[in-house]
Description:
mainly alpha, 84% helix, ion transport, Multidrug-efflux transporter, MATE_MdtK, transport, cell membrane
Amino acid sequence: MSDSLTIHLKRTLVLGLPLVGSQVAQILIGLTDTLMLGRYSVEALAASTISTSFFFTLFVLGSGFAVACMPMAADALGRDDEVQVRRVVRMGLWLSLATGVAMAPAMFWAEPIMLALGQTPEVSANAQLYLRVAGLGMIPALLTATLRSHLSALERTRIVLVATLAGAGLNVGLNWLLIFGNWGFPEMGLRGAAAASVSVHVLTVLVLLAYAMRGPDMARFELLRNIHRPDWPIFGDIFRLGWPIGLTHVSESGLFAGSALMMGWLGTVPLAAHGIAIGIAALTFMVHLGLSQAATVRVGRAWGQGDPVALRRAALAATILSGVAVLGALWLYLGAGEMVVGVFLDRTDPQADLILALGVQLLVVAALFQLVDAGQVMALGFLRGVQDTRRPMIYAIVSYWVFGLPAGYVLGFPMGLGPEGVWLGLVVGLLAATIALAARFLRITSRS
């Protein structure tokens, strides 16, 4: 007999809250960089905005294989197949390592890419300066994503939260030392922020790996047993499930990266305001992302057990919790926007007032897309739980690149709405994705 909706709500909260916390802590790392670099210089803030967007776009493309491990491992656990769990994570680590190596050249030679994308010579040069250091963190970041998926599928999410919080604390301390040159450390500016980020990625992957191997009742999975041996059937399964996830992720992150590029065309002040506002929006979005990951596990377990009633209740429970989080975000954006944006600025900077005013206006638009952004990520989580990734990839690409980005350009430039118009394009793309993905999940579950 399937559990009641109340039980599903409780289990989703128990599983999801540590994931939400770890996602919030992860985004706080980026917000810390934004906060400290914003107080270092507006030029550093603008360069970090575009370069971290570039890094994140590459990361989410490569993380599709890591994310694919979550529903596959959850499905295996639903069938009590522990050997399959080990096979999945082992080949997930292989694919993450290979992907990280393949992405290194794009970060090492980032300046010509930025120039080709219409950024100023100063921003492009500074972005490459940042990425040549930060790029060293790509491999540990992707390996961390794989281990996160493994531990989440096992519903061992507290260690993920602990590791991420430790990384966030380390990032604050290293930023303070390396960006500004405190306590006799060299003043490295952008490169200091990048070096701090690399250190965080290394720490996090080591903590999660140690727990996955030696944590309570974890040794039975023998995670690294025969790690050097290929397992081509599982490798192929992860690849087939993972590459659409990666392209889905990059289509969405590309929407936001494209908006950052268009902000760069409008000038340094719009780009800096965008960096602050999008960081705040990303912080609240992490709540929905964590709940979506919890939903993937809960739906995946029900899918593996062949229980359609539990599957639908797991999806409904996650949707209810996400809706509550949307209401909280709306209160923050509309009621405390000026206070929140002001935290990221040095008010003695001559451009601070312009950035503050524009940042507050952008948060008003963010209140519109928070709802649809939550909708699309929850639907994606449900669909991954039933291991449906290719059709969602097509929906996402069309929604973001055929509707979202063109709408942002038309509204921002030909129609003269400027930065607010670019952000309204985000709303258009995310709304299209929400409708298409939710309809897809309803069609699939209506047949079960």
